[in-house]
Write a structure and sequence with these properties.
Layout (H helix, E strand, L loop, with lengths): L2 E6 L5 E3 L20 E5 L7 H4 L10 H4 L5 H8 L4 H19 L8 E3 L1 H6 L7 E6 L9 H18 L8 E4 L3 H12 L4 E6 L4 H9 L3 E5 L10 H11 L3 E2 L16 H9 L6 E5 L4 H13 L4 E7 L4 H11 L7 H5 L2 H4 L21 H11 L2 E5 L1 H13 L10 H9 L8 E6 L5
Parallel strand pairs: 5-13, 6-7, 6-9, 7-8, 10-11, 10-13, 11-12
Antiparallel strand pairs: 1-2, 1-3, 4-5
Helix pairs in contact: 3-6, 4-7, 6-7, 10-11, 11-15, 16-17
Length: 432
């Protein structure tokens, strides 16, 4: 197995891979949550060739099977006695259950050149815009990729005996993450509480109700600290015993596991190296995972993290970090300044409402990926967000303004990109 354990990006505490429920760094507390466990991989020479043989891969099939030897949940299961056959059976049974609820399972999503977008943006035949279309994936976005490895860890823990009863799952979200979490919970009949802001639409609430989720609308309380009140109530629930079934790495490290499959798929589906990938950023796990997946196979592809002008805490943290005369790219050193660099954004707003998280929870992972690739943050004007959505819809992508926000970033920096460059964006989050 490739994954050997966990290490906190801030305090460098390590956690063995056989440990059940490695949700948070052991040093993370209610008063100091500025920690996040990251995956530790073995050196290539230390990985058994038996893990990587073609017989152990599933071309065209589920990336959860193809990349079993790369995934942290599988390494935990393996370390506790579940061999490959047992893990494959667990994946296949879970995928079948998800299909019954969602109508689709965990198979690679389409990736290809959009001639319409390429022509409209003035790329030549050597370059262009490639699109990874997640709108047909489980629950209509990439969010289920982050959550499925948490669920598989829990189901493996049941088989191993580390989990003998089912606490309620909990998530704070009003959009794609809530829908994905509720879909997976319904598939395996696991109770879930969804904590949402007061402005969530009734129509979306009805979708969650249909999936059997218990929805809690969260008003700001007089003595609440800064931050999203739904996230505060979610943390209260976890403190009371709920499982953090969430897409923020500092709240559950396994959210940073399955999300990497999108990067691996892109690398496997492209016929030639990409020059750049632009990805929308809200809480940051998506960009962190996409960057980590690409780094394994396409280290020369520049990653650009896209936010909107109405909510850009990541770009602000990047400017703050790089304005320091003694700036270092060492993530542990940057992490020590978490409270100064990554602060809550006042009055987040954008039509791309799925990425207006008032802080980028997984900012350290995004910093790591962007820095290593030679990319950078991009702040898209709201006019570009609107234009990108119209362009994406006209090009045939059934996507929301949030889901096309990576394309908005491309519009913002198009003048800095050569017509011959091969550029990719991700469409994620169906139009509702």
């Amino acid at each position: 197995m490739r994954v050997t354990g966990w290490r906190c990006a801030v305090c460098e505490t390590t956690v063995p891979i056989a440990t059940p429920f490695p949700w948070r760094c052991p040093n993370s507390t209610d008063t100091d949550r500025h920690h996040v466990l990251t995956i530790v991989n073995a050196e290539p020479s230390d990985v058994s060739t038996a893990d990587c043989t073609s017989a152990n891969r599933s071309p065209g099939g589920s990336s959860l099977i193809t990349h079993d030897h790369d995934l942290a949940w599988a390494a935990y299961a393996n370390a506790n006695g579940l061999d490959r056959d047992a893990r494959m059976m667990l994946v296949e049974q879970t995928d079948a259950a998800v299909r019954r609820v969602a109508g689709t399972g965990f198979v690679p999503t389409p990736f290809g050149r959009s001639d319409e977008l390429s022509d409209e943006l003035g790329f030549d035949t050597a370059g262009g815009v490639w699109v990874k279309d997640e709108s047909g994936g489980v629950a209509g976005s990439q969010k289920a990729r982050h959550l499925i490895t948490i669920l598989l860890h829990l189901l493996a823990a049941e088989q191993i005996g580390h989990l003998t009863e089912r606490p309620r799952l909990a998530i704070a979200s009003c959009g794609n993450a809530a829908l994905a979490a509720s879909t997976l919970a319904a598939a395996v009949d696991w109770p879930i509480d969804v904590y949402v802001p007061t402005w969530m639409t009734e129509g979306f609430g009805s979708e969650l109700d249909h999936l059997g989720a218990t929805v809690h609308r969260c008003e700001r309380r007089p003595h609440d600290p800064p931050g999203d009140p739904a996230m505060l109530r979610f943390r209260d629930a976890v403190a009371a015993g709920a499982i953090p079934f969430t897409v923020q790495g500092p709240e559950n490290s396994l959210a940073l596991d399955g999300g990497r499959t999108i990067g691996w798929e892109i690398a496997e589906q492209t016929s030639a190296p990409l020059d750049r990938v632009l990805v929308q950023v809200g809480g940051g796990a998506f960009a962190a995972c996409l960057g980590a997946g690409l780094a394994d196979t396409s280290p020369n592809t520049r990653l650009h993290a896209v936010q909107t002008e109405g909510c850009a805490p990541l770009a602000r943290a990047w400017r703050r970090a790089h304005s320091d005369p003694g700036h270092s790219d060492d993530i542990a050193s940057i992490g020590q300044r978490w409270g100064d660099l990554m602060t809550v954004w006042d009055d987040p707003h954008s039509i791309a409402d799925g990425i207006i998280d008032d802080e980028t929870y997984d900012w350290l992972g995004v910093f790591t990926a962007v820095t290593a690739s030679g990319g950078g943050p991009v702040v898209a004007a709201e006019s570009d967000v609107l234009r990108a959505h119209a362009m994406a819809r006209a090009a045939g992508f059934d996507v929301s303004p949030t889901g096309s926000a990576g394309l908005a970033g491309l519009l913002t920096i198009r003048d800095d990109i050569a017509a011959s460059e091969r550029v990719a964006v991700v469409m994620s989050g169906i139009h509702r």
